[in-house]
Design brief:
The chain has two helices and 15 strands. The protein has helices at about 40-50, 165-170, and strands spanning about 25-30, 55-60, 70-75, 80, 85, 95, 100-105, 110-115, 120-125, 130-135, 140-145, 150-155, 160-165, 175-180, 180-185. A six-stranded antiparallel β-sheet has the order 1-2-3-12-7-10, with no helix packed on it. It is globular and about 45 Å long. It binds manganese (II) ion.
Length: about 190
Amino acid sequence: MNNFNWDSSFCVDFDLINGYSKKAESTKRYLSQMKDMYYDTAAAEKILEREDPLIYEFYELGYPERDGDLAFGTTILYPGQVGGEYFMTKGHFHVKLATAEVYFTLSGEGYMVMEDPEGHTLEMPLEKGQALYVPRSYAHRSVNTGKEPLVMYFTFAADAGHDYGSIETKGYHKMVVERDGKPAIIPNPKW
Ligand code: MN
């Protein structure tokens, strides 16, 4: 990874504008918080016997969650696997379902795995220096298929909200695993 300081990059002084926080808050997700989201739960348990790896973290400002504003931040998704399945974010629908989102890959490589409530799926590569548009109504999860952190900038409607629950029970229709040393997108056997 380069020497960029992700935290200080967001020290925009919103205090001057609206009274909102001027320093991005980091939220961390460890394997213990999402072990049941991986297909091979036994492999997850085995890793947890010796360590609890940080899967990803994201930085966000305390933006106003209201119509017309934009939320934005940075996600850092670390490299690794659980039973051959690459490290991934939990992923979510937006509560306001028909709201899109833009991701821009700052470094690393991977996939954005998406699906709508009707089960239509969409997998798009995340490549350094490229923007990716998550269409409205699609749940979205990023997957790190590389050997270095996958770092993404994101922005979406600030009042969109996050709905993690509906996708947590069965997971996504598709999963990204390593096959013969390369990423492969396969149907999730739980579906
Ligand atoms: Mn989103």
